[in-house]
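Researcher: We're reviewing a set of sequences before deciding which ones to prioritize for further study. For each one, I'd like a predicted 3D structure that I can look through quickly. This is Ribose-5-phosphate isomerase A. If possible, include the structure in token form so it fits the rest of the review sheet.
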Amino acid sequence: MSGDLSPIDKAKFVAAKRACDFVEDGMRVGLGTGSTAAWLVRCLGEIMRDDGLRIKGVPTSSRTAQLARDVGIEVISLDEAKWLDLTIDGADEFDGDLNLIKGGGGALLQEKIVATASDQMVVIADIGKEVHHLGAFPLPIEVIPFGWQTTQALVEETLISMDVLGQSSTLRMNGEVPFITDEGNYILDLRLGRIGNARQLALVLNQMPGVVENGLFIDICDAVVIGYGDGRVEVRDINEGTVATDRLEFVETDNLFSDLSD
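Model: Here's the predicted structure for Ribose-5-phosphate isomerase A, in token form for your review sheet.
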């Protein structure tokens, strides 16, 4: 790995590297989307190349699918896999109960479908993603383009009665045009500040016409692997109630990951 990585990129790398320990030969593995998940895909590709690991990957976005193919992972669809042994993905926020906000990369719908079709979901994140209460990161919701402004108005009106600090939302843009998901939908980013009852909010949002899915992942994550910039790694397992710590050393001569730093 390049020695020029920032502390946050080192934290992402060690979390991804440690999460590879959850992957066993022959598994069907859901592959997340985003900068931290990209580290994971590269790490898995390296293990397959050097140690002969054999897995089949179900990506959660077209860009993850391309990266997986580039590093030698056999890519299959969820319909082909039918069920997954494990999904490993990043998160924009996680709290003490391992509830998540996801969707910063724009793939929340596929990510949630894949995660819930898995025996286990493991989240990889740097320590900066941990929060006491969800909501500081804007909550993405995927909406169909037809009547999206009406949907936005309905969402903002409904938020007034929810246990949140803010009610504003913005349409996610890609330059001067709306950002389009892999399913051809738009994303509204809800700026809530703090979410008091994430479970209730997730249920209410998904009942609204025009809303396809929301970025709250409640009772889906089984474990989180937290990376630190100095190489420390912490693994929290919500089911076992355990916390394990470790430290990974950096290999300064390995440039396999140098193009992934942001």
